[in-house]
TrEMBL record:
<feature type="domain" description="Tyr recombinase">
    <location>
        <begin position="6"/>
        <end position="184"/>
    </location>
</feature>
<keyword id="KW-0233">DNA recombination</keyword>
<dbReference type="InterPro" id="IPR013762">
    <property type="entry name" value="Integrase-like_cat_sf"/>
</dbReference>
<dbReference type="Pfam" id="PF00589">
    <property type="entry name" value="Phage_integrase"/>
</dbReference>
<dbReference type="GO" id="GO:0015074">
    <property type="term" value="P:DNA integration"/>
</dbReference>
<protein>
    <submittedName>
        <fullName>Site-specific integrase</fullName>
    </submittedName>
</protein>
<dbReference type="GO" id="GO:0003677">
    <property type="term" value="F:DNA binding"/>
</dbReference>
<dbReference type="InterPro" id="IPR011010">
    <property type="entry name" value="DNA_brk_join_enz"/>
</dbReference>
<dbReference type="GO" id="GO:0006310">
    <property type="term" value="P:DNA recombination"/>
</dbReference>
<dbReference type="InterPro" id="IPR002104">
    <property type="entry name" value="Integrase_catalytic"/>
</dbReference>
<dbReference type="InterPro" id="IPR050090">
    <property type="entry name" value="Tyrosine_recombinase_XerCD"/>
</dbReference>
């Protein structure tokens, strides 16, 4: 079986983002699936780092430190905007027994697998007819939204742990946007 390769992009339009999150709240595990997505778009964490979180990392905290799996670098997460959603999830859906914030439904001694959340995102994407959604969409959406709000490229580059500003712009889809905009009004005869 061959997997379709998709060009994963950020969700740039607020209405699509709102609709996507509303659809996540219609899944079998609405609070879990919504919280995973929110952590991704509020922090820019990779899915592997999100699913590696433990209850002790987030419960009763507004800030937490983790070591990113891919880079092995320390990262401080601001959880202030996520506190209420974490409380709701822990009360309504978490089994209370697993140390993992998002335990596997089959074995709560293990975290939810990346491919399991990918399938959830793909179902929502298919329902909304979006062909650019993957788990990295969360991280890219964070980057795009952060850049649009702050225009602080050096800080974003540091948060995403990129080696250059050009990489960061390309990663969040700004480079393509800027090229398109520059060509829209381009007329060598004027």
């Amino acid at each position: 079986m061959t997997r379709k390769i998709i060009n994963v992009k950020p969700i740039k339009e607020k209405q699509i983002l709102k609709t996507f999150t509303e659809e996540l709240r219609q899944t079998k595990h609405p609070e879990r699936d919504y919280l995973i997505f929110c952590i991704g778009i509020f922090t820019g964490l990779r899915i592997s780092d999100i699913l590696n979180l433990k209850v002790s990392d987030v419960q009763n905290r507004v800030e937490t430190n983790i070591i990113e799996i891919k880079t092995n670098k320390k990262r401080t997460l601001n959880l202030m905007q996520l506190t209420n959603q974490i409380i709701i999830y822990l009360k309504q859906e978490h089994d209370g027994e697993s140390e993992w914030l998002f335990p596997s439904p089959r074995d709560n001694t293990k975290p939810l697998a990346t491919h399991q959340y990918y399938k959830i995102m793909q179902k929502v994407a298919k329902d909304l007819e979006l062909d650019y959604i993957g788990t990295h969409t969360m991280r890219k959406t964070f980057g795009y939204a952060y850049y649009q709000k702050t225009k602080d490229l050096p800080t974003l580059m540091t948060i995403l742990n990129h080696s250059s500003q050009a990489i960061t712009l390309r990663y969040i889809g700004i480079e393509d946007e800027q090229i398109k905009e520059s060509l829209d009004d381009f007329n060598p005869l004027n």
